[in-house]
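Final report, results section. Input specification for complex C-07:
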Amino acid sequence: MLAECWVLVPQAGKIVFTGTQAGAPVHGTFSDYAGRVCIDTGHATGSRFRVSVRTASVDTQLPELDKALRGPDFFNSARWPQAMFDSESVKPLGPGRYQVTGKLTLRDVTREISVPIRLTPAGGGDARLSGQWSLQRLDYHIGLGQWADTEWVGNRVEILFSVTLKPVAGK
Amino acid sequence: MAEELTPMDRSTGHAIPLRNTPERYGIVAQTLHWLIAALVTVQFVFGVKAASLPLSLERLILLARHKSLGLTLFALVILRLAWRMYSSPPPQPSQAPLRTAARLSHGLLYALLLAMPIVGWLLSSASSLTVSWFGLFSLPNLVTPDRRLAHWMLLTHQTMAWLLLTVVVIHIGAAFWHHFILKDNVLTRMLPFTRRGRRSGRPP
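Structure output:
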């Protein structure tokens, strides 16, 4: 069986993160992302996830905060414009459910992460890829200097994504 | 009236009754008055300081405390108004212009003390910075993030702060004027540790 491949449809979906400030949640979205996803359930090595997110596309509805997040203390978008995820390990968990293990690169840090995802039909051959997981922002040097404080700016950040995939031919 | 007095009050005549009497404010009204006065001062200092800072951890902490204290203040003002309904305050000046001035300034104080936290809450909601009470619980957002609304709410909140400062200065000025010029008990009846009925006529 050949691998099924899709590309992420730009803008059609959302990538949301939720951090905390002073104990209250603060949300933001990334609107600019791209990627290609191949799932080959028949072979151990045929699957591949490559997704990139342009960190400067962050939007918290607070221009001042967006500017700070793009700046050197947080994403440093000028120096590292993209957050990257690259995986060749996709394990089926059940119908439409997979465990994707791969390398996440944020700023100058690359770490292995494992994310459970769902793949559901979205009509017209499209699919919806969704899931959620969390990271510790300081693991990726997000929040330098004064922002390394975790009492007022929580270390844990929840990521929620739901993006539309369009089928493409081949690998 | 005896049941309103603490035992010490009966023995010395110095301690303050729990409830308001015609001569003076009781301990509950006095505590609320001075607690609110202290918190308003802290709020003003925090707010002005925060407004002068760029986005920073220092400003985040200041504003977090400002919001927690603001919510506390809102609850205290409601408690104060409720107590005022339960236990009538001492009478206002009997002369018509003074009475009107007192009513107007007190009304304005209460209105600002109630409106400012709500405007602040709207400002936080519109800025997508949810209000948390000392990190123990969060308030729901009143509106979805809205930059224009946030801008107007900030302007309103700040204008109200300066208006409140003005009315507070008038309030303090009026208290001193009553005390030193009119030589009545308007100031002393809101002070602990003073003999009740000092400067004023005997209780009826």
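Strands of chain A lie at 4-21, 24-30, 33-39, 48-54, 58-59, 82-94, 97-106, 109-123, 126-136, 156-168. The interface with chain B takes residues 21-27, 60-65, 67-68, 146-147, 149, 152-153 of chain A (CB under 8 Å). This concludes the modelling results for the funded period.
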